[in-house]
Structure formats: structure tokens, C-alpha cells
Amino acid sequence: MHRATAAGHIPDLIRIGREINNGMARESANRLVRAMTKAGHQILNARVLIQGVTFKENCPDIRNTKVFELATALQEWGMEVDISDSWADPDEVDHEYGIRLIQAPKGTYDALILAVPHSNTISAGSEPLRALLKQGGLLFDLKAAFPKELSDLRL
């Protein structure tokens, strides 16, 4: 976009696409809040687990990830957010973002957001993720990694 602008072109399509991408963390948080409200969940102090923090699946790289923006958007709603990722280096995440990755306890969360569908997570199926939820908890599959009927909410 910078090069196109420097060359005298106004890249509206690129700019609009970037604006949409930059707003997806907040939009995802808003969609989860609407779904939780509709399902009768309390938003304030709700516990949410974000599964996956890396930039893309099956890669330990945390540069350019939008997951921390998603966590911040959820926290702005008054939710308590934990993050778990089997591929990310916990020390690097703590050093770069000041966030400690956790091993999620079963039956703890009001909602779980599958943000990065690593193959080891997907190959295990949705049941291990659902086991982390409280009774009636919502599974939000951001990447449509599972068939539609296995998730409560998708983008």
C-alpha cells in the first residue's frame, strides 16, 4: 500500500481490505458477546480461553498475530481471558507481550475461541476443546477448522 501511494495511486481496495483485517479482532469479540448474551451467559467476568496464539497454524512464529488484539477486545468487555498454544514458545510470548500461556483446566470456560487451528488440535477433534468448557459453554471456531455442526459460532 505504501509503494502504491508513493507512486501516485490510491489503493482503495487494498486500504479497505487492510481496514477490514485490522477490525476483525474487535468484530470477533463483538460476535462472541452477542452469541453469549443470546445463550444467556453473563459477560462481565466470563472466562474465555483463546486456543492458539501464533501467526498461523503449525508454526511457532508469533510475529504479526492478531490474537493479542482479540484478547484485549474481550478484556474491554470485562471478560477474563486465558491463552493456550502448543506451538508457541511460552518464554517468547511472555517476553514479547507480557502474557503467560497456560495449560487450560477442564470445565473452566464460558467460551473457547479456536483462533489458530494447529493440526494436533484439529486431529484430536472438538471434544477435547469442549471438555474445557463449562456446561453450556460456547465453542467459537474462527477458522472454520471443524465442520459447522461441531461449533457454536464461526466467522
UniProtKB/TrEMBL annotation:
Coiled-coil region list: none
Residue ranges of domain UDP-glucose/GDP-mannose dehydrogenase C-terminal in the record: 49-148
Any Pfam family: UDPG_MGDP_dh_C
Family of this protein: Belongs to the UDP-glucose/GDP-mannose dehydrogenase family.
Name of the protein described by the UniProt record: UDP binding domain-containing protein
Native source species: Sulfitobacter profundi
